[in-house]
Structures are given as C-alpha cells and as structure tokens.
Amino acid sequence: MFLSLRAEVEDALEGALSALEFPTDDLGIEEPPADVESVLASSVAFRLAGEAGQAPPQVAAQIAEEIDVDEVAYVSEIQTQGPYLNFLPSDAYFGETLETATDEGYGALTDRDTSVVVEHTSANPTGPVHVGRARNPIIGDAVATLLEYAGYDVSRHYYVNDAGRQMAVFTWAYETFDEDDLEDDPERDCIEYDLVRYYRTGNAFLENASEEEVEAAEAEIESIMQGLEEGDEDAYERVSEVVDQVLSGMKACLGRLPAEFDEFIKETRFMRNGDTDDLVSRLKELDEAVYEEDAWQLELEAHGIDKNLVFLRSDDTSLYATRDLAHHEWKFDEYDRAVTVLGEDHKLQARQLRTALDLLGNDTDPLEQVLYSYVNLPEGKMSTRRGTGVDLDDLLDEAIDRARGEVEDRLDDRIRDDDLDDEDIERIAHQVGIGAVRYDIVSKQPTKAITFEWDRALDFEAQSAPYVQYVHARCCGILEEAGLDPETDLADQDIELDALEADLLDTDAERDLLETIARFPAVVDEAADDLEPHQIATYTREFADRFNGFYRECPVLADDVDPDLRAARLALVAASKHTVANALEILGVAAPRSM
C-alpha cells in the first residue's frame, strides 16, 4: 500500500502545484522522522518560497488547502508542520495493507517484462570454496532473488574459468601424478578436496623441480592451452574431466548456503564457437590497439585507465579478459540487463571490460557491477594456491554446531508446548546456523570489509538472523495455537478477509507494525533499484522490533480479547508471518516454523 499511497501523494501534489502555477519537477517527497505521525512528507515549500514570495510555512499551507483529501483514498489528513506537508494514512490504507499482506506472495512486485542475468561466484574450479570469497555467492544469490521479487525475469549464472593457465596446470598435474605422489589425505570425502591435492602438488613441482623438469612440464601445459585455443576436442575433454569433477563438489558446497544456478557458462564456449577469434580481430582494428612487450594490448590511458588491457599473447592464445568480453557481448544479445557480482580486487578489470566493450560499439548501459570487500575470520587471510585457510564447508559446519548448542541450551526456556525431537533440533540448527552466516554477511554494505564473529552472528537477543527468525517462529506458534495453518493463506482457511475490522487495530504498536508491513514492497523496489539486498536486512531488524513491541503490548489469544479484535490481530500476525518470511527468503535465510 505504501507504493500506492506514494503514487496518490505524487498525483495530488502535482495537481495542487499545477493549479497554483508552480513548477512540478521536484515534489520534495520524503519519509518523515520516526516521531512524526505521517507516512510521507513533502519539503516542496522550501523550494517554492522564493518563487512564491512567501515564507515556506505559508507556501505549505497554501498547497495543503489546494488538495482535496476526499479524493485521496489512502490519506486521511494533510497537516503542515512549519515548511513541511505531512500526509497521514487513512483507515483504507491500514485495511488494505492488512488484507493484502495475508497473501503468501506479499512483497513481490508486478512483472516488469525485463530479463536480467546475474553472474556471481564464478570462482576458479581449482578446489574447495574458501571463506574469503563466501560473500560473492551470498550477495549474488540475494541480489538475484531480490530482482525476482521486484518483478524481473532472472537467470543465475556461474562463469566457469576452464581455459586459463590454472586449469592447464591442474589438468597436467592430474594426468602426471599418482596418489602416492600426493602429500596428504583429503580434508573431506568430497571430490574437490581430493583433486585439489593434485593442483597443489603440481604447483609445488613447478616451484621446486629442476630446470629441465619444469621446462618439460611447461611445454605440456602450453600444449593444453594451445589445444583449447585451437578448438581441439581432445584438449577440451582432458580439461573438462578435471573441471567438471571439481565443479560438482563446489556446487554441493554452494548448495548448502543455498546458492544455486540456472546455468554454468564455460569460457571455452566462446573459444569453440569462434566468438573469441572474431573479437580479437575487432580489437586489433581499434585505434587503441598496440603490439607491445610481445602481446596485443589496448591502451586505455585516454579513457582514464593507466593499465593496458592485454588481450592476446605472442603465441596467439587469448586471455581470460578476452574471452570475458565475448561472454559479455553474448549477455547483451540474450538479456536486457547484465549484473555481475565482483570482488573489490577486480575493480580495475571491471573498468577495463566496460571501456573495451564501449570501444567495440556495445551499449554498456545494461551492464551493472556489484563490488564487495572480502570476509575475514580472526584467524587471518586465506590462499587457495597454497592450500591454507578456512573452507566454506568448515565455516558452515561450525555454524551448525554452534547453533545446535544454542538451541539445546534454550529448550527449557521455550514457551511453546511442541516438543522438539532430535530431528527437529537438527533441522533448526541448520536453519539458524547457516542463516546466521548468510545474514551476517549480506546485512553489511558490500563495499565494507567485514570480519565474521560468531558471538554477534548467533546472538538470539541482538539484531541478528536468529533474532529475526524467532519472529517468524513466534508468528507460526500463534497461528497454530489459533487452529490455523501458518503455511496457508487465510483466504484459503475460511477466513473472510473483507469482514476484518482493521480500524480496531488502533494502538500505537499495532499501527506501527501495519505501517512497517505496508512499506515492504517499497523497500523491495528501492533495494532492487540500488542492487542492495542489505536494505532488506535493515528492514527485517526494524520489522522484528515492531513485531516484538506488538507482541508485548497486544494479546492475541487471551480470553478477554474481543472476538473481532482477536480476528484482526490474528490477521496481523499472518501478515507479519508472510512479510518476514519473504524478506528472509530474499536474503536466502530460512524462516523456521519452530525454534
């Protein structure tokens, strides 16, 4: 309803300003401070004071008089407060919010008929997923779901680096060494943990072997790269045997978050179909193309970039950046928008990519990049090449273990009388533990570096995932106690939504909660426009505070509650349940039915 109210306020202000012969280019609409009763405010009188030749408060009063509130369904009154116009919500605003939010799809916006590809994670398939880059799949998955809620047709992609030197080294090592040559046992009984030992062994060999042995190994590595460049099927199959196995294990790990993909796009695809060769030919024709230091490069200094973009080696093998250019031109052909989630260390490459695409004649307006800083643990930094650091699997296991301990410690303090068996506790431990990791990471602005801390992430009392998840569980408990199924819309449970009397919800706690619920679709809309899922996390914390205030002050099922008020409050609980469940879904955090 907030979006509808805002549209009405915009129309009313434009009409009033036009009638008063004032310009309508800037309506000054904003959300007022928390201590102001209105849902929306306008500061337009500030801007118009000079033109009107009056003080801002007088201009505000003049505009307010020009608006007929009876013609605005969701506004009950317009109050002036100095230079501000404050728009107070009507009973219809609250009533329609209550009815609309009892639908399980509440918060999802109408179809925009716009396709978006969201590329995220795209970690090189050289071994297990590490914690340092865990922010990419968590943010990327949340961005994709947020855009889906905002009405976009979203496709989630993982761009697979299966053609670079790393994969050639991995393939050579996998074919060269035996189990007996490997130093350690796998850290886990998972394929990527098994095979990464070959990669580590190969790198160690290249650093420590004799010059003659290294030269022979490099020749084989080079032949693999040349084979891929020439479209040799045998070279492709050799590399794919390694890539596909490692990738299968990485998929399983990412699936625990969960972060799933609609398509895995291999970079060799654009070598095998000729797109890379075509792109190299076009790059060479650009005025910025030069052959220096045994490589073809683009000089980009005139475009504000000091470092050249190398796109072809002296042996005619392309680079990752070259193939990624072909990849992005394919995206432009297939989708209306292209969003990529990248680590901050790729900022330069992102600028080079966009500039090169511009020089090639592409419209790069559809290209958007979400840059993030890395996640650190107190233990320090990580390195995939050396095989040191913390794997994402380890972090998730510890999260589940710690959450299990928290749940078990709280069993005696539970209010609900539904006995939890071991299976329930394990389910909740997974939901809370993994939810805590995701929420703690996605709730921060992506560009800010963060250090993951257990005490903060798993704090049931502070503004963390468990704090918000508990609101959902509490809503479900109230509905179940009332004989309702929390997973089913009220309209499908013989509840007459038209008969609900939302005007009975007149306490500050009830109105504050309804106003917060009403804003959810608008928060989705703004967060999607900004590609900032952390705005949803911020909203969930505010929502949890508002619901807990309602829960403390407004009994729902007590014997002395009037039946009509009871029905309205139950609907408010159902609306709260759908709101928080859908907000958590955007963030990729489970919404437990019981905790």
TrEMBL record:
Residues 468-595 form the DALR anticodon binding domain. InterPro entries: Arg-tRNA-ligase (IPR001278), Arg-tRNA-synth_N (IPR005148), Arg-tRNA-synth_N_sf (IPR036695), ArgRS_core (IPR035684), DALR_anticod-bd (IPR008909), Rossmann-like_a/b/a_fold (IPR014729), tRNAsynth_Ia_anticodon-bd (IPR009080). This is Arginine--tRNA ligase. The keyword Cytoplasm applies. A motif ('HIGH' region) lies at residues 123-133. It is found in: Cytoplasm. GO terms for cellular component: cytoplasm. Belongs to the class-I aminoacyl-tRNA synthetase family. It holds the Pfam family DALR_1. Keywords: Aminoacyl-tRNA synthetase, ATP-binding, Coiled coil, Cytoplasm, Ligase, Nucleotide-binding, Protein biosynthesis. It catalyses: tRNA(Arg) + L-arginine + ATP = L-arginyl-tRNA(Arg) + AMP + diphosphate. Its EC number is 6.1.1.19. It comes from Natrarchaeobaculum sulfurireducens. The keyword Phosphoprotein does not apply. Residues 3-89 form the Arginyl tRNA synthetase N-terminal domain. One of its GO terms (molecular function) is arginine-tRNA ligase activity. It is an enzyme of class 6 (ligase). Its main location: cytoplasm. One of its GO terms (biological process) is arginyl-tRNA aminoacylation. Residues 207-234 form a coiled coil.
